[in-house]
Amino acid sequence: MDEVEVVAAHSERATLRVGHVFLKVDADQARVDVEVEAMSLAPVPTPEVLWREPPVLAVSALAGTALGRLGGRSTASSTAWAAVGAAVRELHEAPLPPWPGRRRRDPDELAAELDEECESLVKNGILPADLVTRNRRVAEAAIRPWTPRFTHGDLQIEHVFVDGDEVTGIIDWSEAGRGDALFDLATLTLGHEARLDEVLTGYGTDVDLDVIRAWWSLRSLLGVRWLLEHGFDPFAPGCEGDVLRSRM
Q1: How confident is the model at residue 57 (pLDDT cuts 50, 70, 90)?
Q2: What mean pLDDT comes out for the span 24-28?
Q3: Mean pLDDT value of segment 133-141
Q4: pLDDT 10s digits, 83-113
Q5: DSSP letter string, 130-151
Q6: What are phi and psi of 160, to 5 degrees?
Q7: Domain enclosing residue 95, as ranges
Q8: Residue 8: is its pLDDT beyond 90?
Q9: Does residue 20 lie in a domain region?
Q10: Of the given ranges (51-60, 73-82, 105-114, 146-155), which has the lowest mean pLDDT?
Q11: Is residue 90 part of a domain?
Q12: Res 45 pLDDT > 80
């Protein structure tokens, strides 16, 4: 029998790998609906849906390995990172999906959420006030109107697979929808900021670097408490805590 590998697990969902199959357990079937439809529409390589028996979705494993790990060193080549940038650009230029996306929030709503989260981080002693204040200022550049694109919505480095210099697929599409293209680019390079130039070489268009840097701060500020509450360590080397400190 193949060994069962826990790829990711928390109170909302879990992903297991058994041989050449990924098993995703998610009690939120609307989220699974989005994942299945997004993979059918995305113009980039995605896993094959093998079967679905709520609350489990089975998809094929992808060739190659993840582009890297948050908090770890990526051994992927510069060419591979550029290839990922080209794939992300193709996704962002695709026709918009028919649903709005879970992460679509107007600027006022996002600013209010950020203010509330920053207050909680300081009040509960999770982060020092000066660190929060500095990153809150940096994050402001991301809170602006944007043109909706077909976005992955959770384009973490672990969700992109490469084999040599080739992109073999992108997994975990449950947050896909109409979103901010620069949020995808920032999520991909979070903790791997030195790779941004390589990604943009493949992406092939001018982007606002200040907004990407702002999303690094904004995503990290909004994510620290959630990560702690779900059993993850945002203060491990290279993770969200380091990203916030680097802004100082």
Answers
A1: very high
A2: 92
A3: 96
A4: 999 999 999 999 999 998 766 568 889 999 9
A5: HHHHHHHHHHGGGSS----EEE
A6: -115, 125
A7: 63-246
A8: no
A9: no
A10: 105-114
A11: yes
A12: yes
Annotate 153-171 with DSSP letters as a single string.
S---GGGEEEETTEEEEE-
Residue found by looking up tokens 């268009």 in the block: 205
Question: How many domains is the chain built from?
Answer: 1
pTM of the model: 0.93
**Inside any domain, residue 49:** no
Query: In this structure, is residue 139 part of a structural domain?
Result: yes
> Rounded to an integer, what is the distance from CA 196 to the centroid of its chain?
15
Over range 57-72, report the average pLDDT. Answer: 90
CATH number, domain of 216, equals 3.90.1200.10
Judged by DSSP in three states, 50 sits in strand
> How buried is 55 (Cβ within 10 angstroms: 0-12 exposed, 13-18 middle, 19+ buried)?
middle
How many Å apart are CA 220 and CA 98, to the nearest integer? Answer: 29
User: SS3 for 182?
Assistant: helix
How is residue 165 written in tokens? 């210099």
- CA 106, chain centre distance (Å): 19
Q: Give the residue from 23, 30, 27, 29 showing the smallest Cα distance to 8.
A: 23
